[in-house]
Specification:
By secondary structure, the protein is α/β, with parallel strands linked by helices. It contains 22 helices and 13 strands.
Amino acid sequence: MALIFRKVWSSMVVGRSNAHDSMEPQLQSMSPLHQLPLDVILLVFKFLGPKEAARACLVCRMWRAMISDNQVWMFFLQNCRESWETILFQETILRSGYSLGLSPSSFHELPLMQIYGQRAEPSGAIIIDCGSGYCKYGWSKYPCPSARAATFMEFGNMESPTYSALRHFFSTIYTRMQVKPLVRPIVVSTPICHCDDTDSAKAAGRQMLQTMYSVLFDMNVPAVCAIDQAVLALYAARCTSGIVINIGFQNTSIVPILHGRVMREIGVEVIGQGALRLTSFLAEQIRQRGIPCGSMYTVRTLKENLCYVALDYEAELCKDTSASLEVPGEGLFMLSKERFQTGELLFRPPNGGMRAMGLHQAVALCMEHCVAYDKGASDDGWYKTIVLAGGTSCLAGLPERLEKELFVLLPPSVAEGLKVFPPPYGAESAWFGAKIVSNVSTFCEAWCINKKQFRQQFHNRFL
């Protein structure tokens, strides 16, 4: 059917190009396709594909009206590489930029033909997720990050960097990617720091952003999009409001986010232990058994592959939990109770000699602050969506255990409907959140800032 339609369409295009505009009604009446039902013609347009369907708009007014129908372009969008849920989230909620926008029910009101055309030519932005432990970077058009770099070991503390440190950092990443800064816009995640609702914290946050923008624009980057790591992790879960628990390299942060904005007035809870503390604890446990564990990289590999969080810690102590893993170049390692004792440190910091709140206690405290802030508001319950982020949050059993502990700590009215979600893309959730933003059809206009805008509007926009 598609082949017949192509031939008829080609003859009509030729005839239309040789005739006067006043002949168009005559051509329309001569067309045998006008006798076909509308549903059949739309089905044939879908067989033709998006490019030839768009060209068919030139044939006549009736075809132009039919091809502009959202049903045709919804079909094409649903057959893209990205999932339909992601496209729906991008083109409704994220389409308007930082202010966020429509509800998914408003999708049919959008010009889907125009959106498809904009998405067909992606900007191909550079994405750099400046994690406190590892930096992930790559092209937004690729399915995953190109490479990783040990942030802390190679570049030092990136939470309060100087101009020269940031210049060295970005120059190194661009060199490794073998791309010039002036080629494409960049999406960069900002560290989860300076989140307190104090003048000094706000000033430090503004200074860090200003330094980052200055470095990138001095390197001739055409446009920059800077978004908080926790917000990107939330976007990766296709949410705009909720609580993000980011288990970073040195600290764990519990970040309340409402409509894509970090709620500093509610407060960000910080626990002074992160992935490094858990890895060090596991290394100590292994050494106590007289097993040479080699480098910390080996211990981290064991943690990522063998460790988990027990749903019931006391019951797990009575079980045989032995498991082994062969690390290339290091040999075979056998772990037993260390497998779940390492993750238990998140809930019982004193087990590792630390005086700090357990993860569940910090999250419960954050939720109580959210309840107090949200009292009387119409958007009740946004804080009941809890998303995990960071490499250590990938430990098996962590979402279930945290959910269980929160149901014990919180009042039934607050705990009802609570759900803890695992990292949607593992340790690379923030990078994939940036990828989702960079593939929005209005990315450059709605999300990026150029050098001129930075000079004119920075203080008004980010204060």
